[in-house]
């Protein structure tokens, strides 16, 4: 009985952008190592490289994704702890192939709310979580929600405009 | 007023916007090559040491490890200027200097192997201060550079390259002065430009002398044309991905490229070297250290009569570009101060910390941030308003200056007084300026102060660019130019210029990927040269292509080529708008029209930016808060309003204005370790701390190219640091001269902490 349970535990199931993934836990190249971060699993195992690793120690916000609707830092989260979770990454927002973008993505385009664009996926995911929880935030709430996000180019002013524009359109 | 255009000056979505907001934009760490290995670097725990013994046996025996390299078996490539930096050396010169390289099948395995390399060091004493390093008994970093002095005479920009400013008669100049400001000040925070994306390179040898390099670069050509001579002239194909920020630092990544290429050569595989954030902080490019000792003489009316002094430039462990930064810095000082008498000498010194690299501001910011406090002393004595002083003394059309290559240039640019005064008005300078060391307002323990800084460069027209523009029969155009995207939006802006020439919808103009194999030469996006230098080349190429198309079309339209114009993929006789025939009828489907454009350097049009800052100093806590910023400039013609705005907002980041407030690396001077090289302890500005920021942008046509524009992006960071010092000094009524203005320094200056006052 115990052995069977242990065997079951060797697999974890993640729903990423609506698709279910069963991943084996282990130390081989094709497995999820117990020390692997969710950022690594998304980027390396699932090929979802839209999630960025800027600092890899939870200080820059660029690896932000949604887990069960909440914005979390995927570089500070171990994949083995995410069994049964539902995850949304930047690739799961809108349907760009069908020409449908998330209103936030469109607002970021309209306002050129990026320069180099490396922080943008994390910023958009955090903004999505904010708008899901609070559809009409004021400027200070937007700034507060993004205060853990590092942007060295200083796209901040345009980002605040974009998030407020998306909120206005959504409400 | 500026002409109205169809695309130029209009807000249009960045051409890569969709890729960026959907996460599809490819950055270097998103790229994998078949069979690719991962390279890691073993780094020195000591600031200065000889390697006595190094044993790699256990590391080599670890399964999955494909190569371990030490100074004994790396290629004999050399970096540095002059060439003196080996890929790996028997000596280490800073904490974090490279000791050994490992390539393995996974990053984890490579990391594990690093831990199995045994190194025995002979520790040497180290030196961290630029002037102490020149003392006779100082530890010596290189046998070939006695006194730790790196040669300035390396002819980086040709035989007359600037390494100082010598002009007129300073003795006479000082005799004519009513006031003389004098002192020694430093701008040596060890600040890091710190783009979000760490540096990374993938190297793959296609043959013994044929190397392909993928990387995130600001200037896509540098991994080819700058690295060729350092690596024994292999044929390098340089490919750039999207670059996650650079601010100068990722123009090229010489060390990561050396490591990846050496490991790739040893293994016969593609090797990726991605720096961790700690390596990015501690072993990549930081801003040059700068100390100025000297004086400036002025007359009562603010006329500058003489400048003399010594500029000590600290490059850290080695120099790869510092002589070029010194040359540009010496040029930029002359733009800021019109003065007939100069005697500015420089010394380039190596010390035992991480090597400096290219950083936005490129020498000028470093020199001016250390030199400004000296100017302030003279202005304080004279009781002169700094805005009036800078207005009087910023280079005017007809004024001359020596530029980086040592030639005398006469400005064909603008008198920027109009922009400066408009900025002052928007900032309410006259209401806020109460005189030197006087606050604008006092609110209980909080005091408000204002300051101002100016900066400009004449590099907007630097170096060469070549471009092709190809017109396709289906009414699309391809721009072949070696330009990568690191945040300026320049790939988009160049497409706008071509679309404007061709009168073709912007979505029908595309640019080739930044790959040196498929594009002609471009020097890169440095010195704000994208708008004028690169712009001129693509405009010329588009015009050349159009001429070829008109030559073909003329007989079909019964007109001469000069009578023709093109719009939306059709060619018309100007006088007969009903005559339009589509491009494919002119060319057939099996012909394209390709035009060529080339830009030659022109250093005669300096740009300009003034930054006004208002700070609030809490005299109880010592905290300095940046409340308001007004930037004013004249760009001739805006190409893309939002991209331009973004460049100017960028003045806060990238080791810019915030180096006066809180940005610094703190070094343990006993052991040579950096204590805060992570993104929690190295302070950066968050969304919650944004100052109110207003831009005043004029568009007075400039004598550059068809669209009369120049760039200003690079210079946005430069006026900020000294402006903040001035503002905080005025707020507290004490002269503050030490960067950054941490609470401790403020409280010390106010006599609220024990210990000496700030310098």
Note the quaternary state here: heterodimer
Physical arrangement of strands within the biggest beta sheet of chain A: 2-1-5-3-4
Helical proportion of chain B, percent range: 10-25%
- Gap between N and C termini of chain B: 47 Å
Distance linking N and C termini of chain A: 53 Å
**Overall strand count of chain B:** 33
Q: How does the overall form of chain B come out from the CA principal axes?
A: globular
- Main sheet properties of chain A: 5 strands, mixed
Number of helices of chain B: 19
Secondary structural class of chain B: alpha+beta
Any descriptors?
heterodimer, A: 171 residues, alpha+beta, Ubiquitin-like (UB roll), DNA polymerase, domain 1, 2 domains, 5-stranded mixed sheet, 6 helices, globular, B: 759 residues, Aldehyde Oxidoreductase, domain 3, Aldehyde Oxidoreductase, domain 4, 3 domains, 7-stranded mixed sheet, 19 helices
Please describe what this structure looks like.
The complex is a heterodimer of chains A (171) and B (759). With 171 residues, chain A is α+β, with helices and mostly antiparallel strands. Chain A folds into 2 domains: 6-92, Ubiquitin-like (UB roll); 96-170, [2Fe-2S]-binding domain (DNA polymerase, domain 1), CATH 1.10.150.120. Chain A is built from 6 helices and 5 strands. In chain A, strands 2-1-5-3-4 form a 5-stranded mixed β-sheet. In chain A, α3 crosses α6. The mean pLDDT of chain A is 93. Chain B is of the alpha+beta class and 759 residues long. Chain B has 19 helices and 33 strands. In chain B, the strands form 9 sheets. Chain B has a 7-stranded mixed β-sheet with strand order 3-7-1-14-11-12-13, with helices on both faces. A 5-stranded mixed β-sheet of chain B has the order 9-17-16-15-10. Chains A and B meet through α3, α4, α5 and α6 of A and α1 and α17 of B.
């Amino acid at each position: 009985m115990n052995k069977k349970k242990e065997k079951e535990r060797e697999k974890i199931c993640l729903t990423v952008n609506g698709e279910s993934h069963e991943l084996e836990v282990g130390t081989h190249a094709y497995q999820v190592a117990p020390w692997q971060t969710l950022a690594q699993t998304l980027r390396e195992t699932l090929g979802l490289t839209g999630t960025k690793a800027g600092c890899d120690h939870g200080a820059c916000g660029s690896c932000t994704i949604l887990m069960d609707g909440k914005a979390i830092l995927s570089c500070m989260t171990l994949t083995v702890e995410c069994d049964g979770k539902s995850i949304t990454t930047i690739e799961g927002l809108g349907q760009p192939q069908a020409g449908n973008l998330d209103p936030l993505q469109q607002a970021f385009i309209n306002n050129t709310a990026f320069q180099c664009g490396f922080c943008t996926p994390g910023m958009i995911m955090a903004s999505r979580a904010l708008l899901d929880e609070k559809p009409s935030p004021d400027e200070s709430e937007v700034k507060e929600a993004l205060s853990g996000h590092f942007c060295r180019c200083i796209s901040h002013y345009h980002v605040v405009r974009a998030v407020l524009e998306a909120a206005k359109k959504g409400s | 007023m500026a002409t109205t255009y169809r695309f130029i000056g209009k807000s249009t979505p960045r051409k890569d916007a969709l890729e960026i907001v959907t996460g599809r934009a490819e950055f270097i760490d998103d790229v994998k090559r078949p069979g690719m290995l991962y390279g890691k670097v073993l780094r020195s725990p000591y600031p200065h040491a000889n390697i006595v013994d190094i044993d790699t046996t256990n590391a080599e025996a670890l399964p999955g490890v494909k190569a371990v390299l030490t100074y004994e078996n790396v290629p004999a490539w050399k970096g540095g200027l002059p060439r003196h930096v080996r890929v790996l050396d028997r000596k280490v010169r800073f904490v974090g200097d490279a000791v050994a390289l490992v390539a393995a099948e996974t990053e984890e395995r490579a990391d594990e192997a690093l831990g199995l390399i045994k190194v025995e060091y002979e520790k040497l004493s180290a030196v961290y201060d630029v002037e102490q390093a020149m003392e006779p008994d100082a530890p010596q970093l290189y046998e070939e550079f006695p006194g730790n002095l790196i040669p300035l005479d390396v002819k980086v920009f040709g035989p007359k390259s600037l390494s100082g400013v010598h002009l007129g008669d300073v003795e006479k100049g000082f005799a004519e002065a009513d006031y003389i400001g004098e002192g020694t000040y430093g701008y040596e925070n060890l600040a890091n430009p710190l783009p979000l994306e760490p540096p990374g390179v993938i190297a793959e040898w296609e043959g013994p002398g044929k190397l392909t390099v993928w990387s995130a670069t600001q200037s896509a050509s540098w991994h080819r044309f700058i690295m060729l001579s350092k690596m024994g002239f292999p044929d390098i194909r340089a490919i750039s991905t999207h670059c996650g920020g650079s601010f100068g630092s990722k123009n090229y990544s010489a060390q990561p490229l050396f490591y990846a290429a050496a490991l790739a050569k040893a293994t016969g595989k593609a090797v990726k070297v991605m720096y961790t954030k700690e390596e990015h902080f501690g072993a990549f490019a930081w801003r040059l250290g700068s100390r100025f000792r000297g004086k400036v003489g002025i007359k009562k009316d603010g006329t500058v009569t003489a400048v003399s002094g010594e500029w000590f430039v600290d490059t850290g462990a080695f120099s790869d570009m510092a002589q070029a930064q010194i040359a540009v810095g010496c040029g930029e000082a002359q733009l800021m101060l019109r003065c007939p008498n100069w005697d500015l000498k420089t010394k380039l010194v190596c010390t035992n910390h991480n090597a400096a690299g290219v950083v936005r501001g490129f020498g000028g910011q470093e020199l001016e941030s250390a030199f400004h406090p000296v100017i302030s002393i003279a202005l304080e004595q004279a009781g002169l308003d700094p805005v009036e002083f800078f207005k009087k003394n910023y280079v005017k059309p007809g004024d001359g200056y020596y530029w980086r290559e040592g030639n005398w240039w006469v400005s064909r640019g603008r008198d920027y007084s109009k922009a400066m005064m408009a900025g002052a008005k928007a900032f309410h300078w006259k209401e806020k300026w109460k005189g030197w060391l006087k606050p604008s307002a006092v609110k209980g323990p909080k005091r408000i102060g204002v300051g101002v800084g100016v900066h400009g460069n004449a590099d907007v027209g630097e170096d060469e660019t070549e471009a092709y523009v190809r017109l396709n029969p289906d009414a699309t155009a391809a721009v072949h130019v070696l330009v990568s995207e690191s945040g300026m939006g320049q790939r988009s802006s160049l497409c706008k210029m071509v679309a404007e020439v061709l009168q073709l919808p912007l979505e029908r103009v595309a640019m080739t990927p930044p790959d040196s194999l498929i594009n002609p030469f471009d020097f890169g996006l440095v010195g704000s040269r994208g708008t004028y230098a690169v712009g001129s080349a693509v405009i010329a190429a588009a015009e050349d292509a159009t001429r070829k198309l008109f030559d073909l079309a003329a007989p079909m339209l019964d007109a001469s080529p000069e009578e023709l114009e093109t719009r939306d993929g059709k060619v018309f006789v100007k006088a007969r708008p009903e005559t339009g025939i589509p491009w494919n009828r002119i060319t057939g489907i099996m012909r394209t029209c390709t035009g060529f454009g080339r830009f030659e350097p022109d250093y005669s049009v300096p740009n300009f930016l003034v930054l006004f800052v208002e700070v609030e100093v809490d005299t109880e806590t010592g905290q300095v808060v940046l409340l308001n910023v007004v930037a004013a400039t004249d760009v001739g013609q805006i190409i893309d309003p939002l991209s331009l705005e973004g460049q100017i907002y960028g003045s806060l980041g990238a080791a810019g204005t915030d180096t006066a407030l809180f940005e610094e690396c703190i070094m343990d001077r006993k052991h040579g370790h950096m204590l805060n090289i992570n993104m929690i302890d190295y302070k950066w500005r968050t969304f919650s701390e944004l100052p109110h920021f207003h831009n005043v942008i004029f568009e007075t046509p400039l004598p550059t190219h068809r669209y009369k524009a120049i760039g200003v992006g690079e210079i946005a960071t430069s006026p900020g640091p000294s402006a903040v010092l001035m503002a905080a000094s005025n707020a507290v009524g004490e002269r503050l001269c030490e960067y950054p203005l941490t609470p401790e320094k403020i409280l010390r200056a106010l006599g609220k902490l024990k210990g000496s006052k700030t310098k």
